[in-house]
Design a protein that fits this description.
By secondary structure, the chain is of the alpha/beta class. It is built from 13 helices and 12 strands. Strands 2-1-3-4-5-6 form a 6-stranded parallel beta sheet, with helices on both faces. Strands 9-8-7-10-11-12 form a 6-stranded parallel beta sheet, sandwiched between helices. α7 links the parallel β7 and β8.
């Protein structure tokens, strides 16, 4: 029997990197490093990375992977007709909250996810929160569901080149607090209006990084300076130069920006919803994302109060050190080994 695992890299070739794309890119790399004899990356042409690539994923990918024992798809969708799928489903937000998405996207997810999960050899997700969500929303049996947390690249560190990022992004010497995430409704960035005013009063600017997604409902225009999409190579410096990171999201399957900020020595303020309490533990200030005053109070403290900042920085560095992509690859390979040898 073949022991080759084909990696579906459609999300990995997308030019803009969000959480799902980060997982696809890094796992394509790390699995190959871990077991070069086992893993083979299959990429579509870049023009098929998004919606136009659905036909490639459903029809051509299984043919390109015909010699593989398994097809590993790290971005929530997989070829429906294949009986060789191991699929990573990050969350079920489109099923739980379809109003956050375009009607066609929500319908596509509602149609495909139940079939994919039912036919998959195994389903991987990124947190215990998402595991419970999948069991409830998609009736995935516990013995077919595996939790593999995401990791943090070593390039996210307090020593990252903040000056180069600031120069490229037009940021001056003024201190700033940072929000990183797509400009979509569930990120809840509109709640930061009061925080932006209070930060300004202590000499700190609010800066947001992230672009919109066409298939998701746009949220309120974020307050403060909007950088738009920040190139991936500038993110480490942007994190390292920030006084604090805030993620007031209403729903997260994981919350990778929190760990990336922690690894960068940046204090974190995060929502107490979804997977964020699980991922952040006691290394962040957790707040009700619908309480404008609580979000503002926590963010100002994290950005300007040394008595709050210093313990958060130390706890964050320790917390982020527990999440490594090598470990994510090892856990994923363990799932593959069990299927191939079982």
């Amino acid at each position: 029997m073949s022991e080759v695992v084909a990696i579906n890299a459609r999300a990995a070739v997308r030019p803009e990197v969000g959480g799902v794309e980060r997982v696809a890119r890094v796992m394509s790399r790390e699995l190959g490093r871990l077991r070069p004899d086992r893993y083979r990356v299959i990429e579509p042409p870049p023009q098929l990375a998004h919606r136009a690539g659905q036909a490639w994923e459903q029809a051509l990918l299984p043919l390109l992977a015909r010699d593989a024992a398994l097809i590993y798809s790290p971005a929530s969708l997989a070829p429906v007709a294949s009986g060789r799928n191991v699929v990573v489903i990050h969350d079920v937000a489109a099923l739980r909250h379809p109003g956050w998405y375009s009607a066609p996207f929500a319908a596509w997810q509602r149609a495909l996810l139940p079939v994919i999960t039912r036919r998959a050899r195994a389903v991987i997700t990124v947190s215990e929160f998402s595991r419970r969500e999948l069991m409830e929303a998609l009736d995935v049996r516990a013995d077919r569901l595996h939790v593999v947390p995401s990791g943090v690249d070593e390039r996210f560190s307090p020593e990252a080149d903040a000056e180069a990022a600031h120069r490229r992004l037009g940021l001056g010497p003024r201190p700033y607090a940072l929000a990183v995430g797509s400009r979509i409704a569930r990120k809840n960035l509109g709640i930061l209006r009061l925080a932006a005013r209070r930060l300004a009063a202590v000499g700190v600017e609010l800066v947001t990084a992230g672009s919109g997604r066409g298939y998701m409902r746009a949220g309120e225009r974020p307050p403060g300076r909007a950088l738009g999409y920040v190139p991936d190579e500038l993110l480490p410096g942007l994190y390292a130069g920030a006084r604090a990171l805030v993620l007031p999201s209403l729903y997260e399957g994981f919350g990778l920006p929190c760990l990336e900020a922690m690894a960068s020595g940046t204090p974190v303020v995060a929502s107490d919803r979804g997977a964020l309490p699980e991922v952040c533990g006691d290394a962040a200030l957790l707040v009700d994302p619908e309480d404008e005053d609580a979000v503002a109070t926590a963010l100002v403290a994290a950005a300007s109060d040394a008595g709050v900042r210093e313990p958060l920085i130390a706890a964050g560095l320790a917390r982020a050190g527990r999440y490594r992509w090598r470990r994510s690859a090892e856990l994923t390979d363990r799932v593959m080994t069990g299927l191939i040898e079982g």
